[in-house]
Design brief:
ATP-binding; Phosphorylase Kinase, domain 1; 43 helices; six-stranded antiparallel sheet; kinase; three-stranded antiparallel sheet
Length: about 950
Amino acid sequence: MADELSRWARAADLFDELVELAAAEREPRLRALDSEDPALAAEVRAMLAADDRAEGLLEHSLGDLVPEISAWETPVGLRLGAYRLVRPLGEGGMGEVWLAERADGEYHQHVAIKLLKRGIDTQAVLRRFLQERSILARLNHPGIVRLLDGGMSLDGRPWYAMDHVEGEGIVELASRRALSVAERVDLLVQVADAVAYAHAQLVVHRDLKPGNIIVDSDGATHLLDFGIAKLLEDTGDFTVTATAMRLLSPAYAAPEQILGEPVGTATDVYALGVVAFQLLTGQLPHRRQSRDPALLAHTLAQPPERASSVLARAGAGQARVLYGESADAQRLSRRIAGDLDVVLAKALQREPERRYATVSSFADDLRRWRTGRVVAARPDRRGYRLRSFVRRHRWGVAAATALLVILIAGFSAALWQAGRARQQAQRAELVKQFVLSLFREQDPVARAQAQARSPRDLIVEGIERARRELSSDPRLRLDVLADLGALPAALGDPALSEEVLRQVVEQRRHGEGSDALATARVEVELGSVVLSRGEPGEALALLEHAAAVIARELGPDSEEAAHARGRLARAYVVVGERARALDMARSAHATMQARRGPGHIATLELLGLLGTTLEQNDRCQEAEDTWRKVLEGFERTLGEDHARLTVPLANLGTITRSLQKYPESAAYFARGVSLARRHLGGRHPLLGTILTRQGDVLRRMGDFEGAEAALEEGEQCLADAGAQLGQLYMNRGALKVAQRRHAEAADAYAESQRLFTAHAGEGSPYTWLAAMERGVALMTTGDLDAAATYLELALDKLERLNGRDSYDSGMAAGRLSRLRRLQGRYAGALGLGRHHIDIVSKLYGPTHANTSDARFDLALTLRASGATGDAREVLDDVLRNIQPGTSTATLAPQIHLESARLAVDEGDRARARRDAAAALALLGEQRDPEPSLLAEARQLAAAR
């Protein structure tokens, strides 16, 4: 075997030496070799003949061309360093690729190993293989396979281990999943970002093609095979050698590679353009029917047909293969036509200097197309097209008059472009001077006032000056007013925002039309402000219309469409359309994550919206996990002392309060209040919202004084906040109940119901939750008839709005069950009570405090109805599941006292005294225990 390897190495060296020569120069060397070693000469002649075939080496393995090599197989189980080969994954021009597993027992791991093929380890190939390994070692990017290890096999072949990526080729995946045009562009952006990173490390790939791009199950792309990559810093010689020419893929090679001209980063731009063209149309931009460099060069000199035209011409059948059964070729063609056609055309220019200067520029234009912005690329001017035409068909151009017409047209187009550029520059300068003038008076030397203006004052002046000073350019004036008009709401003045934005919307509708994109963009801002002002009906109409227009104009997977869907989801939450809100939030977040990645602020904001809608759909544990991710992402990106952290802190406080993790909830609210006071000021609505929730959790923890202070401060912040003030009165009512001031509680709930009705409407569940608690307060005062009116209505409305099995409906059923017990209607009370238990048990589990509270209510009803045995079974279960710090623990004195009463009914005096003593001890720990409970507990504890 050693002799065979040595013989093959000698043949390979001779092949490398002779393949670079012309046929006439080869022959003398081959004749000399014939006389020296006829067998070796025959092998070399066979290799050279194979290389000279039209299809070349790329379509065949070396085993096909030289059958003797096929017997030199790498065995399964071969040990390479810490790894053992499991099965072959494929092979390339230089190496075999194997799936391997960690074999040293340190830990379990699967990797991909590339091993130099036997028999071709010439100095040139070995140098190229080692260079590939060296290149991978210097690249560290999530979109490029990572080098893990390397070494030499026992038979002297180099190898390296890299990440094993489970996935499929980019073209195959796009067709199998029927990805949209926008989703395909997103994949291309990922690949371009990885290539741009390689270029930043002075590495040109030189063999970009779909087969070297794998997409994993999460939709992330991975760039493979740097086998003929070039280090720009190694020699300064960027030309493609004949050997490299044999290894590259001509279908994706740039013209300069085909012709052996210098290559650089623009070479990869061209290859990415070819990949993009194929990914979008299913075809290559040029039909490369020959591998002859001269013929290929002639083919590539022709400008490719537009991608949109190729797709339209391919027809419905090809469109369905690429984009799914419902695909429409003409609609897809229109989607690509225009800017995307221009972007591809620029990447595929024949001359490297006319392509994108960098891959990053190519990626940026793809992103601009995705977000509906103007791309940097521009169509070729007619003058350039004319010169190209003349160069290619110089003998066929005879009509001088036609030439003149075309030149004049090209000149006119250039003048129009120049005029437009000057206009844009003038507008930009006008905006700059306008903004700078607003801030100049903040300079303590220049300003006329003694004190600098507040941010709100600055915005108000900006709005007035925009109306006055930008009247010569109506569109610019409306653009500036729209931007400034959205700001006052964020500073606690939604009324000013609403006034300005309404004016802009009306003028946009009049000047550009109701369905114009510019109008829809302002409607999004106006809808959000109107929603915060307590007009959900109008807000929904504005946001639904705006979201539809933006999705139509920019595509449903654009960033602006995602933002609009996010605003619409918030409106659905307010009006109680919880399932629609959840679907809308999921869609918005998925789009933004695909566009910006999981750690971007915009993605995290929509993830928070998803957390809110999960909570509204009674999926509190999922909501808590989601908001924790938001908080961690904000802290990682913005630091731990940023105003934007107040939102995830407030929401985590709310969710942990619902899960009865009260100390944890209080800690979140305390931190949120501190940040809001420091960064937002003492009267901001967001501070009021957090204080409202903080007051509620403090009440639940027994700190009535702290709760009262928080609610008082919160009310000052929410004086004009409509529905948010309604929530504050809900929490104030709960505090009055805890203080046993039930008439005041009923009044607070009545005010809450009035506010919710006025600002959220009767279609909001909050209106009926307030009515429910109003009924409970009236029940406690003894007005059972009035209580029944509100409780029965609340249950009916909540079941209609949220469904019979929602948490809110379960609460209403539980409250009405108490009333039925007091009315002596035990059958109805038991049915409602058991329904309540079913709902909370499904949501929280059988041992959660909410479930225990509902079971305690059921035990009270069972005892009242005479079902003593059933009551004891339920009550003992509740006693076993009391957890410190929960609502059940707060009720523990009443639970022990009820157990004592039940023991009296059962004739178990000893247990009655024990349970009464436990109740007495727990009441003694309270600052203000209810006198009637104290008296009863003392009596039962002393009874004999």
